[in-house]
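Just curious. Protein, please.
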Amino acid sequence: MEFRLLGAPEVWVDGQRLELNATKPMALLAAGLLRANRIVSMPSLVDAIWGDAPPATAAALVQSYVSHLRRSLHTGGRRVIVTRHPGYLFDVGPEAVDVARFEALAADGRAAAAGGRYGPAAETLRSALAMWRGPALDGLNSGVLRQAAHGLEELRLTVVEERVAAELRLGRLAELAAELATLVTAYPLRETLRAQQMLVLYRLGRQADALEAYRRARQLLREELGVEPGTELRRLHQAILREDPDLAAPGGEVVAAEPPAARGAPDRTPRQLPTQPGELVARDREEAALSTALRAAATGDRPVCCAITGKAGSGKTALANAVAHAVSDAFPDGQLYAAFGGTGSGAGAGMAEAREVLGAFLRALGEPAAQLPESIEERAALFRSRTAGRRVLVVLDNAGSEAQIRPLLPAHAGSAVLLTSRTALLGLEARCHLALDVLPPDDARRLLSRLVGDDRVAAEPDAAEEIVRLCGGLPLAIRTVGARLALRRRWPLSVLAGRLRDEHRRLDELVAGDLEVRASLQLSYGSMADPVRLAFRRLGVVGPAQFSPWLLAPLLDVGADKAEYVADLLTDALVVDATGVAVDGQPRYAIHELTRLFARERADAEEPAREQRRAVERLGALLLDIIGELRDDTQAWLDQESSVLVQTVTRASQLGLHRLACELSTALFSSFRLRNSFDAWWRTHEAALDAARAAGDRLSEAILLRGLGHLRYEQDRLVDAAGYYGHALALLRAEGDQRGQAGCLIGMAVAYRELGRFGPARRLIADAAELYTGLDDGLGLAKCAYGTGYIDREVGDYAGSLAALDRALAGYRAAGNRRGEGLTLRGIGLTHRAAGALAEAERLSVEAVDVLAGIGNELLLAYGRQSLAKVHIRQGRGDLAERPLREALAVCTALGDRFGEALVHRTIGELYLAGGDLDRAAGHLRAARQRWAASGLDLFRARAERDLAEVHRRRGDHATARELRVRALETFERCGTRERAELAVQPH
């Protein structure tokens, strides 16, 4: 079976052409064949067929086309298209696709030319070009396939240039002159063809025509692109002007079919650098440092090695290529280039690759292929001899290890090596060693702007910023999305940003022609040793953004020392970055977002579910032990490891470990509440809740729903909180869990109380008290007494409030609950303050602050200080109030406690009101009103409005003051609070 894509797509079987006339199935087949023997995802196939306007049924249509193609291509019982998650694999041999054969022939021709065998090189390259029947993928017009066709056409033209170069070495000048005249007309902006035409004309004795060809090229480039000709074309022009002898054909005559190298004489200077890249973005400092070191080497007293290391996609190759071109003039005896496979994990394979590269370098330097020694040691010695006394630049791209590099290092002054690697190369002595990082946000946006246009980025700055963030500043990822957006001019940037937002398809979206982030990451993964790959996958099981070595111990089931050693290996492999020291003194590491997603893919593809579950169970057990210890430093450690905690619960839920997920979420509740870690609280409980429901575990479901009720209460979303408590209550009644029911009743009562619905709140407290009495639960009864005392104070029953709060205080103290004790002391102080007993209010408020300071809860301490400050304001001692209030406001703001912020703002407003600073008072009171109104807390909003009314009254704005008082009074009357009597007697 033969697949032809270099022209209109065709399929041939046993010498007969198959009739596959439908365009869309053929587009699907072409997209798969272009990535033969690799999994092609469903989104990639949809893009290839429909571009940016797929139908709603695209996935179903793809499956239909696959079935049609399978029937048409079925032969010998072997399937060409194989289902592989998350798409399909097109299983064909390299000889079956003309694109692969073309590339193989081109590589053979290139190798022959590098070895000085120009006759065979020209013939092989001519055979490769003869395979083209017309424009590649002719008739397939989706953006993705047109981009692929453009890439193939670019490759074809490169092969044309290489074939012309070979024939130039053979002296076929007359034929080339006519052909190049046609080629530069067809491709006027290709400077290599222009240079070849100029050289042919000069060697034919037509210097004036050669100079005229340069003039036309320069004029065209300036008019069309606004740029001057490139460095090489300008150098050739200058050489022609001065009739440089080096421009003559080898030997001064037309050369023979076999070059001098075949007869043992050194050949012309090798110039093997790849095509010069476009402008680099944000690498000026690195480029300057490397250029300085390399230029110094050319005139120095010893050879120099410069290394660029960095994670996959960080732009190492582009930087090395740019630097090599920039300093090439300092190395007139040649520039040698080799691209390795990055196989640092297999020493044998890596050294075999180094041996082949040495052979290619020696042939390029004029050594006859037949005379090359076999062993790598002998080749390395010969290479050092051939480079002695020469100024040669050696560029080694994607080297795998120090051992692979050392045989390729020149030993004498005047030469230099510039290499890139995906590993740290700690054992290599390098004069200049640059560790390339991702781009900072501003530079990343600048790169995106250059690729898609400043106008599009300016039109959608938020989408552009999100794209850059989701790419993690990785140059390869940004170039990939830039290429896609440049091809889709009508796409809003927000469309691609939305696609990238989905973690499960992000790597699928980062593909554009031969730019593919996943493939680059795969190269790094493939270069790792087996133990490092295992650690990488196990990190992918959990997928933290940051971690310390302790995490690897349970994931790999190893000790702490081994975990630290493996973390070092991951750092050396440049898949994690050392970022500092953790709160417990361990090293701290970060994983790039795209690397993290790739690790998850590898875990899902290679790690059996059983092993993933065991790893997460070990991790969960360790976390429960740590949480249970509750040392003084535990909270700081939990804050630091928030990402790991959330991901552990999420993965436990996904792997069916619902009891572990529930237990972890519940254990973390106190930590999350202490720090107002609302996002982590929500994500862990939601994930565990889904798992509990899937398992039919109604008790766990109820516990998690109650936890979500607590969360919504802390977020001041009281109606939602009551809903979660109510749902949990129903489940707990069905399960017969009385203690759980009582807890939900108290939660609902608190929510209703804050909403000013005191009647329902009292009834719920009474129901909870009945259950707690039956359970003989003194702590539960203390909670009920506290709730009753709170409501009594709100409605003006101060005696009832004090009696209830005294019972609560006794209950909390008997249970040793310092948190409840501190809050109750504060509550008793509030009641005394409301009753006008300010001395007693101050004493109890001070006692409350002392207790709350002792338990280490800075948010509750902020509430205690606010209460004491308010007493001082009422006593006329405002000088004692301002600093504690400012500190309390800072704590509430830092922890995202909107209610606390509003409460302190109102108290500061009262402070300024008492001091006569009406403008400042109004500002703080409005801030309080706005926050309480946004949370739906009408009673507290009304209290801020009552104080604002006083501000307006003192300003003489009686109309606004009356309006605010009336609105506040309506709320007080509806809620039945103590303030209704106070306002009712004031004039409206």
Summary: Residues 251-267, 343-347 have pLDDT under 50 and may be disordered. Residues 672 and 678 are 7 Å apart (CA to CA). The longest strand covers residues 304-310.
